[in-house]
Amino acid sequence: MESKDIDRHLNDLWKKVAGADYVPDASPLPSDMRQANVDTMRFLRENFSKAESDWKSLLAAKDAQLRDLTAQLEETRAHLGEVKQHYQEAREKILNEEMAVALNLEDSKRLLDTQKKNHGREITLLKEILERTKVEMVSLQERIDALRVERDEARKRGDGLAVEKAGLADAKAGLEARMADSKEAVERTLAELLGERKSRRDDQVKLKDQETLIKDLTARLDGAKANWDAERTQWRELWDRERSVWETHRQEFAVWEERLRSEREAWTMKMREQESKGVENAAGLANVLKESSQWTEKVTQVLKLYALKGVELPAVFVSSGPDKAFARARSNVTRALALGLAALLVMSAGAWRLHAWRAKAHYRLLASAPIDLPNPSGLAVTRDGIWLADWNRGLALKDAKDFATLRILPAPEGQPLRPGALGASGGGLWTLDMTQLRYVLQSYKDGKIMETVRTPGPAPQGAAWDGYNLWTFDASSGLIYKYALDPKAGASATYPLEGVKSLACMQWVNGRLWTLDGNNILRRYAFGDGAFRRLSSQPFGKNKAAAFWVDGASLWTVEKAGEVAGGYVLKRYSLKTYN
Asked: Would you tell me how many other CB atoms lie within 10 Å of the CB of residue 448?
């Protein structure tokens, strides 16, 4: 390539990188360009390629940060939606309370208006009575005046009018009595009206006090009712839990009784077989002793005959020691047997080591990525991706390739749910809810609860699905529980697990039960003849694992990042097993 072409190519590269004519055109080099200039150009190209790779890695890191920020933004939006929903519920509740208060105020105003109308009618009636009484008093006074005039005239007329005067005096006395009675009635009516006003005021004060007292009593009754309902619910849950524990213990006792009965029958049969074998051996030994005694007796008689006749016995019977060739052959055979036995022991030790190595699970780390969960408690891998259960955030689905968060399942029906273990089945996710001590089957799409199962004991751990049945473990009893096709009916059988006292995670893999206990020991069991047989036991690794999941030839784990760094990481191993 010519020097001009090289300069032009470098200028084009600078223009693509900088977006403008950042580097001025270089003057053409002479035709006799030296090797140093070529080395310089090669050095510049290498630097440019390194810078380009650094920029690409920086852009990839920025893209990863953007994805994390996007996931955090989605979580913040979901939380904001929950807060808005709570705010709307509180607002509706306050509005309902205000409407109830307004209705009470309107009823009180209506009652007061009715009372005011009644008192106004009474006052109007009393005023009419007073007016009538005044009119009657005026008319009576006029009549009294007329009668006085007539009396004066009658006095002038003489004694003839004395009778009429007496009648008029009686009439006057009657009218005065009637006027006094009317005045007394008016005073009594006014006193009653004033008393009613006073009593009405006292009644209003008492009514306000009674309303305040009623409100306090209503609040106390509501609080007492809520406390009673909560306590009643707790007692009911405690009773159900104790009943389930009693039922589980009853089933365990029945299972143990059946096992003891079968073991006793097997032991009895075995003792009878051993007894029959002992009798047969004793009979055989008696026959051998009898035959040997007969043979000894015959040999004794032969020796007596030889001794009586003075016959010399062969050297086989009277030799003082073994032959040297026989001793040498015996030592050679002994040495060969010792060598064969040593070779057999070495081969058996090698075979045992090979068997132990093949019985264990062999895994190798392929990938590792940090996860943004503060307290993960469960792991499951399905066709949708990787499901992670967290004590605080619930269930989260992540992509199996770049570990990005695809969606987060909300708490079902607004209930608090603290997952303690996770297991995948064909119908959904089996989740251990530690708040209410139950196993729930949640939908893959929206997390809706489709089935609920009570835990068999007070300390449930682990959840595993074998394709047909649900399996659980309880640390208080140290037993594994098997549920039938209808898990609501309760546990159908219980089995002990050798060497397991507490579980962190469990899973059925190809007909084998894999367990990870609290001491970070990975064990595998085979189930057959109504019992679990341990196949292998091995420490998992340096970092403690919170959960694991086997997916074909891959082993997924959630492990602690380290004592100093903190947090958790999601790791994928390549898995190899031989049985």
From this structure: 15
Calpha distance 456→218 (Å, rounded): 41
Is the residue at 56 inside a domain?
no
DSSP H/E element including 556: strand 554-560
Q: Same domain, yes or no, for 191 and 340?
A: no
CA distance 169 to 252: 117
Burial of 558 (0-12, 13-18, 19+ CB in 10 A): buried
**Is 65 part of a structural domain of the chain?**
no
For 355, the domain range is 274-359
Specify the number of domains making up the chain. Answer: 3
Same domain, yes or no: 496 and 571: yes
Same domain, 557 and 419: yes
- pTM for this structure? 0.45
CATH number at residue 480: 2.120.10.30
Q: How far apart are CA 518 and CA 461, in angstroms?
A: 11
Q: What is the mean pLDDT of each run of 10 residues along the chain (579 residues)?
A: 63 62 49 62 78 79 83 87 87 87 86 87 87 86 86 78 76 83 83 85 86 87 83 78 74 75 79 77 72 72 65 45 53 63 69 78 88 87 90 84 82 75 90 88 87 87 90 89 85 87 90 90 89 90 87 90 75 87
Enumerate long-range contacts of 529-536, CB under 8 Å, 24 or more apart: 530/495, 531/495, 532/480, 532/495, 532/496, 532/497, 532/498, 534/498, 534/499, 535/359, 535/579, 536/356, 536/359, 536/360, 536/361
Among 325, 359, 393, residue at a domain's last position: 359
Whether residue 315 is found in the same domain as residue 401: no
